[in-house]
Amino acid sequence: MAETVKRARHAREGLTEALGETSKINTIIQSLASLAENQAVSGEEMKESVEQVLSSALRIREMISTIRQASEETVSASESVAREAEGVSCGAESISELLTTFVLESDEKQRALPENVTVLEE
């Protein structure tokens, strides 16, 4: 019977040691699970950040496209204004040339047009 008690004690010590090791393993597994959960949360946060960056990049691209289109329209309008200004300049030159053909008399108060002609002013 002493041998049985000795074996039982030895088995008990082995079980106690195994239980301690199992507890350590359980703690390690819980730590790993916690780390995995934190990594999953971090991964989700990174995914959301990347999606926000992508969305912002797309909005910037759209804004650049709008700015480019507005610039092209501005160039076109500037060219049109330049053409119109050239036309007005040519018209002014023609009028100036026509006015040089008129002879001004001193008693007419230096008027290029007769007195009975009314000039409309805006």
TrEMBL record:
Protein name, entry field: Uncharacterized protein
